[in-house]
Every structure is written in C-alpha cells, then in structure tokens.
C-alpha cells in the first residue's frame, strides 16, 4: 500500500478516533436485532462488520506491537477473520447470521477495549516507531471505511426483506425527469493510469503504467431509471441477443426482470431504498444492476461500457482529480441514495463522476503490469481476488469520501447486484467486432 506521509502520534490518534466513531454512528440507528441478521451469503451482519474491523486492528497492530499482548477474547480470531488464510481457520462466511453471541452490546465492549489499547499504544510511540506502525494503522482506517460502505449496502439488503419497509435514514429526492444525455469526446493516445503521489492508495492501484487508448467518448451522466424503464419495456430482460451467454443464463436462473430492489405493484414499479420504498424516480441514476445487466443495456443502446483506463483518463482530462470528489454525492451528504445529475454546463463536462453509483467498467480486475502483493497476511488484502471480477470506478452514495479516489479500483463479480452499482455508457474507440468467426458449439 502507498501511505500518506507523515503521521505523528497525535494525528494518528485523532484520525483513529474519527474513523472508529463514524462506524458507531452508522450502526446507531440499528437495533441489536437489526445488527444480527444476514439476509444472504454476501451480506454480513452489522455487528460482524463492527467486530471484524476491530479484529483487524487487534491482529495487525496490537498483536505484533503491544507489550504483553493478549487477545480480548480467545476465540474472536476465529469468528472475525474474514478471509486471511495465513492466519489460520475461520468461521464460515454464509453462517455469520447464525452467531447470536457476542451480541451487539458485547461487540461494543470489544470495540471499546481495542480502542483503549490502541490509544495507549499510539500514545507510547516515539517518532521512529510511529513511522514504522503508521502504514498498518492507516490501512486499518481505510479498511474500516470500506466496511462502513459495506455496512450500509448490507443493511439495505437486510431491511429489504422486511415487509414493514423500515427506514434507515437519508432523504427522499423530489421526483425528477432525466435530462438529455451528452457526450464528452476524448482523444486518447498513450496515457498513464494508476496512482501517483504521496496520498494513500491500495496496492491494486499501483504501479502507474502506460496504456494506449483509441479515440472514444463517454456519456456525460449515468443511465437513469427512466432510461432503464424503456430498456425493460423494449424486452430488455427477455431478449437473449442483448446478453452475454453467462448473463443470459443468470437472467434465466435468477428470474431477473428489473434491477434488484425494484418490485411491481398494480403496474407501478417501486424501489426499496434506505429511506423506505418509493415509486421509481425516473430522473435518478439506475442502481443495483449487475455487470451483466450493464452490458446488456449498453448493447441495447448501441453503445458499450468504458474500460477503466478510459474512465480514469477522461476524468483527468475533465479536470476532476481527487479534489473534485468533494462535489460528489458521497456518504458524507447522508442522502444514502443516488441523486439526479446536476444541470449540464457546470464547471465539469462529466457529471456524477464521484458518488451516486459505482460505475461498471469493461475491465476485468487484473493486476496492473508490475503489481506485487505485500509479503505476509496483509498481502492477501487485494491481490488474491484478481480473477472473475470486474472493476468499478467512482464511488457511490454510500462511499466514504476517502474512497472516491480517481485511481480507486473497486471490484465485484459479474452477477453482483447488492452493491450500489450503475452504468455510464461509452462509445467510439475499439468497437465491437461485427460478423466475426462463429462461436464454439
Ligand atoms: Fe475486511
């Protein structure tokens, strides 16, 4: 990972308290019962998120550095390890919702204990030791923020299974209609992609490297619910010719006929949100669609998805480096739902770059040329997931602002829909080959 320099004991302790307190703020509206449910294997209970991010600090910071270290509880290492094989066996992920003890209150005690010990440890460090520890503590901050986003995505799914349509929070946007979609032309050529500079980045954003891009264009906003309704009305979910083979098989198997969280009642489409269930708002970006659906939509529209290199380069060309993310609809605004695109003609030509919905790209999640995972258990953080997933860019309305970086590479499997994922179209450049060789029988 690439660290932000330099930390001292005070700034590290202050940031630690901010990040940890924010997780508790997000969990505060949820009852112990809300925090216990796992509504599907991809979802983790809220209290598990709260405990797992605590386990991360206990395992990677306190265990190697705290004098006389002893774990808070003997078996928590087994319960709250997520996927680190080099740390030994762990509890089955799809069964996290079966664990009623520790309860939400006891997870709070675990958090408080680790917080006290982390504060004591950081306060005892001299400058040289701070430099040694800071990269791992900072990784812990970013890890916890990733889980803050997951906590919201997961509780959205949990609450979606409740017929009482509970509200978590956020605000309900006024009904809006989509404005015209514009296009931003980009010259391409030999460009550089990937993280540079002093700020924090995950290892998967490195190394910075060159890519060749043919001329291309990007849509100036995300695809809207209104446009998605037209896709549906035109048989989008019933026309095999629009779909990749794996996608079509998934549509059949899962019975998909609309985005996740949409349901039809008396001919009206409703959408479950963190602010309750509303009629689908045509001017808002469509969310909770899989890569397969994004691909099918792009095919239906006669367009394609952008590659991650195209996305990143276009955003740079549009003057929207990391400083521009503060204008985005990210979790700090607490809408917890995508917003309508601002009117065209503003400071930047590409609208909704940061926030609203993570944007599917056509790029497989593979290592950048020259990528090397770190040694030890921490090397399992990103690298081992580099197969069978697609890259998403930009962040969503549930993303902490520090995770909406220009070079941030999010990734999910092709069929995943519970993340807040949407679509930006691309056109031009590397067009799809028409009339190529016959497929394999
Ligand atoms: Fe984690």
UniProtKB/TrEMBL annotation:
Residues 183-426 form the Sulfatase-modifying factor enzyme-like domain. Signal peptide: none annotated. Pathway: Amino-acid biosynthesis; ergothioneine biosynthesis. The keyword Iron applies. Residues 16-149 form the DinB-like domain. Pfam families: DinB_2, FGE-sulfatase. GO terms for biological process: ergothioneine biosynthetic process. Keywords: Iron, Oxidoreductase. This is Ergothioneine biosynthesis protein EgtB. It comes from Phycicoccus endophyticus.
